[in-house]
Design brief:
The complex is a heterodimer of chains A (206) and B (471).
Chain A (H helix, E strand, L loop, with lengths): L13 E4 L1 E3 L7 H4 L19 H7 L15 E3 L12 H9 L3 E4 L4 H10 L3 E3 L2 H13 L5 E4 L4 E3 L4 E3 L4 H9 L5 H5 L2 H10 L9
Parallel strand pairs in A: 2-3, 3-4, 4-5
Antiparallel strand pairs in A: 1-6, 6-7, 7-8
Chain B lengths: L5 H9 E4 L5 E4 L2 E4 L5 H9 L10 E4 L16 H16 L3 E3 L9 H8 L7 E4 L13 E4 L2 H10 L1 E4 L3 E8 L8 H12 L7 E6 L1 H4 L3 H9 L8 E3 L4 H7 L8 H13 L10 E6 L6 E3 L7 E3 L15 H11 L14 E4 L1 H4 L2 H11 L9 E4 L4 H9 L2 H8 L2 E2 L20 E4 L15 E4 L2 H10 L5 H8 L1
Parallel strand pairs in B: 3-4, 3-6, 4-5, 6-7, 9-10, 9-12, 10-11, 15-16, 15-18, 16-17, 18-19
Antiparallel strand pairs in B: 1-2, 2-8, 13-14
Helix pairs in contact in B: 2-5, 6-8, 13-15, 13-16
The chains are: A alpha/beta (206), B alpha/beta (471).
Chain lengths: 206, 471
């Protein structure tokens, strides 16, 4: 488990680490973190509970339990990863387990936004490329990879695979402006203007 | 790119600024909070030394963790109690209105905001809950957000967001007797898939949609997210205005007339441009039931569970996972599948018309032996209305349990849950693995009337047969 100090911070341009494959389409946030673990007023302990039920079912054989994946930080998934509930507990649990980047065929939207808010880049690759990547990783799971957000590539010593990011999200991550609160609060004049102008906040007189 | 749609108009009206990186800062007209996704947001606000920017534009209630059998405080579950205490103190400290237990208006957040008249056309609405899409039924742009975004809305009454594309789902024809809004939305998700809506807002339109009541429209928009669409909406019309008029927070007198004029002006133009359009026919839809582990894995009551060879290649592996988890065999009928638990409630189907439809089936009947059936009204208001109509008595006499309002077994963050491999007939919205509180529990999604029918017969049943008997 990583300590709090290594959570994403500032400019995110390169992520180095081993890859972990989690196969399957439509993996929902109830599976990533079952609802009973949402009974908490802090995210602190979620890392241990990530995929709790799936892991129990596989009795040590789940990718998040396999020894070889211990310490991996780049998660490889398939289609529509993170669908379902909006719970930010899901990316929080992944992050607290040690995940720092996710690469997949596609992501559910709320999950994608939640990851961005935590500084976890979600990149996409075609089905074919993901399959290629999975083969390479399976052949040598201990290999280190470098996710390069400037080049938009995932590299090991002999392979380089291109991947896609939403331009806005990519810009926010690379420049360290993925924590939106500061930007949003700095426009307070314009926000006050909206409060004065929106019809439903002004007895529909505007 | 879409233009002239309600989505475009409301988006443009609420755009505050373009942010570095290209996303938009979108003003949020109404922010709804509950006990599960807000505590960490308030904590983060405190960490950053920020205040709530517009306390009067945030409204709170408690729904996910409340027990439905005994709501006396303190709750018997100390974690649930701690979450409610935290919400109460956050609301108190920040001057946020909280509709707590016994206030007369507590309930599932997506049930109470419409019934209070808080949800109105033309608003942007955010809540840390994916079923916020429900409020789109009024012609609002409403979507679920994560906890970091709850923090952002508290701090700035706005969000960073990319504009969605707009897909119009035009539904012609009319729903047949015994076929409900739930069947229609399950059918739409089956047709377009659980990821079909990613990147889109869904505009539901056409005669079949216009013919729906507000509560039915909420059922439709509620499950947009199960189709991958973060937001779904319906253009406001006389049905919308009639529902709103006289509600606690609805505009009154002169401002009511100004409001309806403004609301009308927001509707999608006749020549609006959509990024995509889909045409469906409501008359072809039969009562629909899920058989698998995603809301897209559904069939009509007369069909057999699909065999892999009649599915698209890309749907086969999740289908295999579904057969295995559900213990159901491809090529066999869903009708006649025995059920253990029957749950009527949730933000999808916990409103008064849902309870009326179920009570019509339950009246004078008995819950089958060995089946546990319970009804959870969506709010204190719904409970009160149901009691005034004596629906609670009809259910109790038939052997259903009548509970207090809350999210209940939709997601089992409270004592209501499946045990072991139990299989439920459920009027809720998600049949994910483990969703209803047991890691091997199984869920069949269907309309509230279909759940009532399953409770009476003890198995998945075509509600139309019971309806015909009732006539």
């Amino acid at each position: 488990m990583d300590s709090n100090s290594s959570f994403p911070k500032g400019k995110i341009q390169n992520i180095r680490g081993r890859c972990l494959i989690l196969s399957g389409d439509d993996i929902d946030t109830d599976r990533i973190i079952p609802a009973r673990f949402l009974k908490c007023v802090s995210f602190e302990n979620l890392g241990e509970q990530v995929f709790a039920d799936d892991r129990k079912e596989l009795n040590g054989d789940h990718p998040f339990d396999q020894k070889i994946n211990k310490g991996a930080s780049i998660l490889i998934v398939n289609q529509n990863f993170g669908c379902g509930s909006s719970r930010e507990h899901a990316p929080q649990a992944l992050m607290r387990w040690g995940i720092r980047a996710i690469i997949g065929q596609s992501f559910a939207e709320i999950f994608y936004g939640n990851c961005l808010a935590l500084g976890i880049p979600c990149g996409t690759m075609s089905e074919h490329k993901i399959a290629t990547l999975e083969t390479i990783i399976s052949e040598n799971p201990m290999e280190e990879w470098k996710l390069d957000l400037n080049q938009e590539t995932l590299n090991n010593h002999k392979t380089s695979l291109g991947l896609n990011y939403q331009p806005g999200a990519l810009e926010m991550l690379r420049t360290g402006r993925w924590d939106a609160t500061y930007q949003l609060t700095s426009n307070s004049d314009k926000l006050t203007q909206k409060l004065k102008n929106l019809p439903y906040l002004n007895q529909f007189n505007n | 790119m879409s233009s002239g749609t309600l989505f475009d108009k409301v988006w443009d009206l609420h755009q505050v600024a373009k942010l570095p990186g290209g996303s938009s800062q979108l003003f949020i007209g109404l922010h709804l909070i509950h006990e599960v996704t807000s505590p960490q947001a308030f904590a983060a606000l405190k960490d950053k030394g920020l205040n709530v920017f517009c306390p009067d534009r945030t409204v709170a209630t408690v729904d996910h963790i409340v027990p439905t059998t005994n709501q006396n405080r303190p709750f018997s579950d100390p974690l649930a109690e701690e979450m409610l205490v935290t919400l109460e103190s956050n609301c108190l400290n920040h001057d946020i209105k909280l509709y707590g237990i016994g206030s007369g208006h507590q309930g599932i957040v997506h049930v109470i905001a419409p019934e209070l008249g808080l949800t109105q056309p033309g608003m942007t609405i955010a809540c840390g809950d994916s079923h916020t899409s429900t409020h789109g039924a009024f012609g609002a742009i409403a979507f679920g957000v994560g906890t970091s975004q709850v923090r952002d809305v508290l701090a700035s009454q706005s969000l960073a967001m990319n504009k969605l594309k707009v897909r119009r789902i035009f539904v012609e024809g009319n729903l047949n007797e015994g076929v409900y809004a739930k069947d229609l939305i399950l059918h739409i998700i089956r047709e377009l898939g659980v990821k079909g809506g990613v990147g889109y807002a869904y505009e539901f339109a056409g005669p079949a949609i216009q013919a729906l009541s507000m509560e039915e429209r909420m059922t439709i928009c509620n499950m947009s997210i199960e189709g991958g669409a973060r937001c779904g909406y319906i253009n406001p019309d006389e049905v919308t205005f009639e529902y709103l008029q006289g509600r606690l927070c609805a505009p009154i007198e002169d401002s009511w007339n100004r409001a309806t004029n403004w609301w009308r002006s927001l509707c999608s133009e006749e020549n609006a441009i959509f990024d995509d359009e889909v045409l469906l026919n409501a008359a072809k839809i039969a009562p629909t039931v899920t058989w698998g582990i995603t809301p897209g894995q559904s069939i009509s009551i007369d069909e057999n569970i699909p065999t892999p060879d009649c599915l698209e290649q890309s749907d086969r592996s999740i289908a295999e996972e579904g057969y295995k988890y559900m213990g159901l065999r491809p090529g066999t009928p869903i009708k006649g599948t025995p059920v253990d638990v029957c749950f009527i409630g949730s933000c999808t189907n916990g409103r008064i018309s849902d309870l009326q439809a179920a009570a019509k089936i339950a009246k004078g009947q008995n819950v089958a032996r060995g089946v546990k059936a319970f009804v959870v009204p969506g709010s204190e208001q719904v409970a009160q209305e149901a009691k005034a109509e004596r629906l609670d008595e009809i259910f109790r006499e038939a052997g259903f349990e009548w509970r207090d309002p809350g999210c209940s077994m939709c997601l089992a963050m409270n004592p209501d849950r499946l045990e072991g491999r139990q299989i439920s007939a459920s009027s809720s919205n998600r049949n994910f693995k483990g969703r209803q509180g047991s890691s091997s529990g199984r869920t069949l999604l269907m309309s509230p009337a279909m759940v009532a029918a399953a409770a009476i017969t003890g198995e998945v049943t075509d509600v139309r047969i019971l309806l015909n008997k009732a006539l």
